Amino acid sequence: MKPALRLGATGIGMAASAALVSVAVVGPSSATNGVSVKWDLTSNWTSGFEGTATITNNTGAPLDPWSVTLLTTNKITSYWNATSAPVAGGYKFGAPSWATALANGSSVVIGFDASRTAGAPIAPTACAVVGTSCTMIGGDTASPTPTAASSSPSPSASSASPSPTSASPSPSTTAGPSTLPTPIKFTPKSTASGVINYHLNLPYGSGNVEKLTLSNNYTDLITSNFVSGALLGRLLHEKDPNLAFNKDYVYGSLFAQLLQENINTGGYTNTTDWINSDASQRAQLLASGQGGPYQINDYSKRLETPAGIGLVNFSALQKGLGYSVDKQDAATNNQTNSTGPDSLDQKYFGPMAAAYFHLNDYNRLVMNNADTWGPQYQYYNACMANLRKSQSTQASNNMYDMILNAAYNAGTYSAILKDEFRICAGMYTTNPEMTQLKSLGDYTLSDSAFKTATGSTESAGSTFILYPRQIRLYLDQMFNQKTFNSGAITGTNSINLSAQDIGYVFQNSMGTLAYINSAKAYNYIAPADSAGAYAAALSANGLTTKSFLDIGTPAGKSAFFKLLDDAINNVATNLNIHFGDVTQTTIGATASASPSASGTVTPTASATAAACQGALATYPTGRGTYASGTCVKGSDGATYVCLPGVAAWCNSPAEWAYAPGTGSAWSQAWSKR
After folding, report:
1. C-alpha 8: how far from its chain's center?
2. Which of 231, 273, 381, 406 could share a disulfide with 417, CB 3.0–4.6 Å?
3. What is the rounded distance in angstroms from the CA atom of residue 438 to the CA atom of residue 152?
4. DSSP string, 434-482
């Protein structure tokens, strides 16, 4: 299963046609001859708009390949499910390579974003098709509200998402979500200058680009995303302690994804708790099927299958999400069909939710490839073994971040993800993979050049072929480093973070996570606990609240990452928190914003553990017959209980993943007594 929508770029940030996931047959039109084009306006803002065109063939014969010209004076900035080229008076849209024919009586849906020409109508004024008539249906009176698409399990489905816009938001003076603790307010001492180019095509300069002018308005948002990124790093190492990754791109992924996924990160204002202070933009991003500014569209589902877990199954997030496990799992009236929790747009909780979604991508990849039918099974084990080698640590060609981002953007069955696992599996031992590895992150490559250099089977013109490199390029601009060359990297950016500001953000970010304390109460992490952990980390690193760390320099960046790692470790140690804990039930009753709120604890199989008496079979004896609550003895001699709802994992023959106590994902299947 892949996300229903995903912000990406084909030329720029591709925008949200929530009603569009692929070229689809939608049935015959009422027209009796020729070609008809039904126009629908799906989104409308000050400087531009987004729309779809349903093209129906009623010529009496197939059109292969099909094409249609739409007459408009507006400037098309991105498009999907078609090729596009400017022509006199408008744009010619043609069949994509994967669906060239349009049968008689059938339709395809294409979409595009456009910047508005002053005084011009939004809708195309006419259409034209060579060799037959073309009738235009619909105009500017169409509804501006997009219909959210349901998730598609198809690994080849196209991706679409809300369009970035430069329109200025109307700042809200209201506080953030009521389900979360009230953040500490502070006036930033941090400074920032320079420009980040984003929503861009590759190579840089070949398409649209938007610019975020750095200032201290953004430093709290940048910091909160890096706190969440550092926690993601810890979560990955809790799963796989020897996994090597480049911290630059794992810790930074969340902020870069926010730039790419969100409608208008440049419009952020630090005077509110929201990422999007414009209420209308926020509502669009939290609509059913969207997933907030990070576009974590399938946040509300168990992934990869009903045997998996969703975000609400993470104990740390359940309280802040504010809905129940039952709401997630319901057949009807479930969370997937509901408006997203507004906490997804809160600037401290939102990136945490995205971090855990990445963690669940790790889980999904383990699940998918535990059996021989897995989509990357033939490469998975060799790739992960390579990523555990010391030579992979912090290497510029360490590609684990690209694997995570391909899974996040394109889905766990996508062509680009399989390409990356293939290259990863052979990156130290076989050709052409050893050579292809060097091109995997190359910003100078066009889609076709990338396919040639890497042997990729991903479609040119798709968002998927760009996304992992886009995320890296945004971060290399912030870090002033040219891992690969690009004109977008000026080398002159400064993001000089005050240690005092980092401390406030750290408290606010960690304060959105909940845990079960020693008194068995389900609480948010209290500010005092985070403050103490951070103060100890400052001291251990020879820093004070008056220190500044410029992440645009190698030394400042390294010190920043070390500070976050130490502070998070102190929280975990002091409070005895395992941040990756999973629950199959709702913990307590209604979530409360009070850090002292408590609830009934029911997150594990502890209720059945009391039955683990007498001589127990040593795993894997009896595998295939295990049920929720089954007790076994692990290779370490400890007792393990199969967790509720995941007996399929307990019985999996993939011991490297699910063997109790030793498998890379054992804690998803077993509870240790």
Report:
1. 11
2. 406
3. 33
4. HHHGGGTT-TT--HHHHHHHHT--SPTT-STTTHHHHHHHHHHHHHT--
Phi, psi of 391 (to 5 degrees): -70, -15
Token output for 301: 């589902």
Domain's final residue, options 440, 460, 489: 489
Q: Quick one: 63 exposed, middle or buried, by C-beta within 10 A (0-12, 13-18, 19+)?
A: buried
| Boundaries of domain holding 119 | 8-137
pLDDT < 70 regions, the chain: 1-32, 43, 45-46, 98, 139-176, 589-611, 645, 664
Task: Give the pTM.
Answer: 0.69
How close are the terminal C-alpha atoms of the chain, in Å?
Answer: 33
Question: Tens digit of pLDDT for each residue in 402-448?
Answer: 999 999 999 999 999 999 999 999 999 999 999 999 999 999 999 99
Cβ pair 411, 2 in contact under 8 A: yes
Q: Cis before residue 210, ω within 30 degrees of 0?
A: no
CB-count burial class (<10 Å; 0-12, 13-18, 19+) for 183: buried
Three-state SS sequence of 506-529: HHHHHCCCEEECCCCCEEECCHHH
Q: Within this chain, do residues 126 and 221 fall inside the same structural domain, yes or no?
A: no
CA distance 315 to 584: 9
What percent of the chain is modeled with pLDDT above 90? 60
Q: Which pair of tokens denotes residue 517?
A: 């304390």
75, part of any domain: yes
In sequence order, the 6+-apart residues with CB closer than 8 A to the CB of 445 are: 202, 203, 439, 453
Place of tokens 């766990």: 412
| Alpha carbons 116 and 28: distance in angstroms, whole number | 32
Closest to 398 (Cα-Cα) out of 408, 412, 415, 384? 384
Looking at residue 83, which CATH number applies to its domain? 2.60.40.290
